[in-house]
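Consider the tokenized backbone below.
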């Protein structure tokens, strides 16, 4: 099967439109369960409520000014709203590109012979390669034009984590996924996430991030992945949740330095995941401020440096909505406001505190942990 290079390049370029980023709407359950808020988790997790909330997001007036792509869960790719409109059509009609999460998560039993990390389980890799070709083709037929696959790596310097074995498994698994997606016309988001669980320093995270990204791009080359038709979704370089807290400027400097040392200029876009934060932090504002610091400190980079946020875009919107139809317009506005704030952050012009958020009050541990 011939790889559609021109289509992939065009899609990746559109996804990397200046000032725009991704709405990660690919939670397997209701996003309120992963928002990490005491009130939000009270919303009943039903297919009907998930459809109500997601259609609310996809029809938010003005969202396409700041969002180029929406990452969907398999359920949502085939779901309809209460009026019978396909979710994919709501997204496309808004001028946004639909995408699809294709990994099937990981088994916590993990890689045999690897140590237990700060997540409480062995090192892992994600499942789903065996039937990926079929699912990628089905997703394309349904309207998706890009895809996401995430592998998780843990840091524990005392145990030598991440191990060379885990890194090799993760990056080759991601490269194989990327190659299959491109064969089916989907632009792959490559996401080797190094989770912040642990008490390590920002310097340790920087060294691990560089090592992983060097391995990742070597694997992509080995698998003949077309870089101009793929994008990267990395973690920011930060201290562990239990480590000495780094400032936004320190996070920005360490992150961009690691990327400049490892990511080829052929890659059109880098879209950060927001990552887990401590319970006393406003994760929405923190994610925006960190991204803003990067683009303010480094205004001329070889790739579009942007966002691919889930709860860091949706938390205030979810708590505003709370499952009530009368709150729909206010929730939509909250989502658009935070999307606009992150759009400003891609230009280094966001003013801290200028976008109202629910803040840290009411924060609880995110249901389901890191994944």
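A designed sequence for it:
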């Amino acid at each position: 099967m011939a790889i559609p290079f021109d289509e992939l390049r065009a899609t990746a370029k559109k996804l990397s439109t200046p000032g725009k980023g991704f709405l990660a709407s690919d939670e397997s359950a209701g996003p309120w369960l992963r928002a990490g808020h005491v009130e939000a988790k009270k919303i009943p997790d039903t297919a009907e409520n998930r459809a109500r909330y997601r259609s609310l997001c996809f029809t938010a007036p003005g969202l396409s000014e700041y969002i180029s792509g929406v990452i969907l869960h398999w359920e949502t790719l085939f779901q309809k709203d209460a009026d019978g409109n396909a979710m994919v059509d709501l997204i496309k009609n808004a001028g946004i590109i639909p995408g699809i999460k294709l990994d099937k998560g990981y088994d916590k039993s993990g890689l045999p012979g690897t140590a237990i990390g700060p997540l409480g389980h062995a090192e892992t890799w994600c499942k789903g390669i065996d039937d990926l070709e079929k699912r990628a083709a089905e997703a394309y037929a349904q309207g998706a034009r890009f895809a996401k696959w995430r592998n998780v790596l843990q840091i524990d310097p005392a145990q030598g984590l991440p191990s060379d074995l885990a890194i090799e498994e993760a990056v080759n698994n991601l490269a194989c996924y990327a190659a299959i997606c491109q064969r089916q016309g989907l632009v792959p988001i490559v996401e080797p996430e190094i989770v912040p669980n642990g008490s390590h320093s920002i310097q340790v995270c920087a060294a691990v991030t560089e090592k992983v990204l060097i391995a990742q791009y070597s694997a992509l080359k080995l698998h003949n992945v077309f870089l101009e038709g793929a994008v990267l979704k990395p973690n920011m370089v930060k201290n562990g949740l239990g480590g000495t807290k780094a400032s936004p400027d320190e996070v920005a400097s360490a992150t961009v330095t690691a990327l400049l040392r490892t990511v080829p200029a052929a890659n059109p876009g880098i879209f950060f995941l927001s990552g887990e934060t401590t319970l006393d932090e406003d994760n929405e504002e923190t994610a925006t401020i960190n991204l803003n610091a990067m683009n303010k400190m480094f205004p001329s980079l070889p790739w579009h440096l942007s966002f691919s946020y889930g709860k860091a875009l949706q938390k205030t919107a979810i708590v505003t909505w709370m499952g009530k139809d009368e709150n729909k317009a206010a929730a939509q506005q909250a989502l658009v406001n935070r999307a606009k704030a992150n759009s400003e952050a891609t230009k280094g012009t966001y003013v801290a505190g200028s976008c109202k958020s629910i803040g840290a009050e009411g924060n609880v541990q995110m249901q389901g942990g890191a994944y």
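Residues 30 and 50 are 6 Å apart (CA to CA).
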